[in-house]
Structure prediction request, 379 residues.
Amino acid sequence: MSHELRTPLNGIWVTPRYCWAKTGGNERQSTMVNVIQQSGEYLLSLINDILDFAKIEAGKQELSLSDVLLPRFLRSLASIITIKAERKALVFSCDIAADVPAGIRADETRLRQVLLNLLSNAVKYSERGQISLKVTVLEPGRLRFEVQDTGIGIDTGQLDTIFQAFAQAGDRLHRVGGTGLGLPISRELVKLMGSDIQVISRVGEGSTFWFDLDAPVVEVRGDILADEQHIAGYHGLRRRVLVVDDVNENRALLIEILGRLGFETCEAANGRACLDSVEAQTPDLILLDMVMPEMDGLETAHRLRRLPVSEDADHRCFGQRFRQRCCRSHERRGQRLSVQTYRYKKTDGATRRAVTTRLDLRAARNRDTTATPAQRSTG
Prediction:
């Protein structure tokens, strides 16, 4: 269901942006592309809320822990909320206590989802004053995240209602768009983390939401310290990428992105077509969709490993954001079949970074082509 909903949305959302960037349209076209992008983002958020709620109701939601560089994580949140707050002439502050560790072990995606929901609500229901995010240490390995606003506040009798699905507190004049799922989902996610969201509020004065999180301190490693970069190309010999996906729109988007980076590209609609064309195309990198008819990405990778021509090629599986046990079993199976890595199917900067920064071929082929200039800027 997730795949079927998000796949067409990717095409609707991303294609106009790349078309405009390529043709350099006028101001009116830029405005229309922004409308499409904002509408796509809103629709995606609704879809994500509904899918998350369905997984929680079915008891299928799980956490995926990783090392999180907390200062960078909080700066990213602050940059998003600052823009939203400035649109309403609100002041946003992010107060991080001096003893907050640099690295913690947590589910970065779900922690971001919860905090963004709380902060976005604070902006949504405030017409004046300020919004603040505070992070403090309760004891070693335990943090408190607190969001405070000077908004309309919530009546005491409605404090339980706000955590009910499809419900919004307040009178009709102050109710705004949304599914009414943000807070219920956030509370369930925080419960999965072993805590709960608490709230105090006074009508006309504002609200404070907080939760305490067990977050083991981890050593900050070099790979999570690296600055995120915008990739515009690459140096060196021209590389060829074979894109294998049964959805035409997905192939077209990836080929457009890769072509703009300077890669040669070729495509195949399924695993069998990939096997038929790989010897003639001799790709340096093969991007395989996980779920395809006839032959899936893992089986295709397994058969590619049996071909002498594929020994130097890099096989990477792309798929939607799976987090269930079945995904981990796929990854274990993929490791046995020598799949190089997994990447979530996202048509944004992550795709460019995944391809250009991890094209670590063991034996690069020599092609008589000119180098593609690379322009990198910190993003």
In short: The two ends are 33 Å apart (CA to CA). The chain has three domains: 2-57, 66-222, 227-378.
